[in-house]
Amino acid sequence: MSDFIHLEEPGDPTLVMLHGTGGDEIEMLQFGKELSRRTGFLSLRGKEPEGRVNRWFRRFGEGVFDEPNLRMRTEELADYVMEKLPEKKRVAVGFSNGANIAAATLLLRPEAFDAAALLAPMVPLQPDTLPDLGGKPILMICGERDPMVPRMNALALATMFETAGAALELHWHPGGHGFGPAELNVLKAWIARL
């Protein structure tokens, strides 16, 4: 099994914490503990450095992804979480680049996650065919003024998930590429309902 630098606290369900560009497993574990005291955590570090910052997959520019690398890293992540947490309910919680690798995993290897919360995601790739997401709970939290993710891109991702049969909740906030206390409460409530 390919390994990741990670921090882990056992529990079921387990929140699989996926950082954004420049983040790490330490900050995401702390964030996870803000979200829930009743779950386990598996907080991972992406393996594609960009200069001195951590990422999950390579890109050629802002919003222009290296798709072969993205597909390879998606397969690696899916295999890892399924082998690491074979009997647990696995819930992805990703921000920005972490949300994008989680979205790619839902589209290419949907069996890896039982649910996913995606903060500031965008369409990571176009799969050859959409998977059957069969009512899988997915939360998307998106900013109306996000300079990195145009509204139409976020809506396209939401449409892909809905067409694939996910139980999608799409939450818009008036800000940009981030989230505030109101969005944190939306996320906490969603996790509590799982």
UniProtKB/TrEMBL annotation:
Superkingdom of this protein's organism: Bacteria
UniProt GO MF annotations: hydrolase activity
Dienelactone hydrolase domain location: 86-179
Gene3D superfamilies: alpha/beta hydrolase
InterPro entries per the UniProt record, alphabetical: AB_hydrolase_fold, Dienelactn_hydro, LYPA1-2/EST-like
Protein name: Phospholipase/carboxylesterase
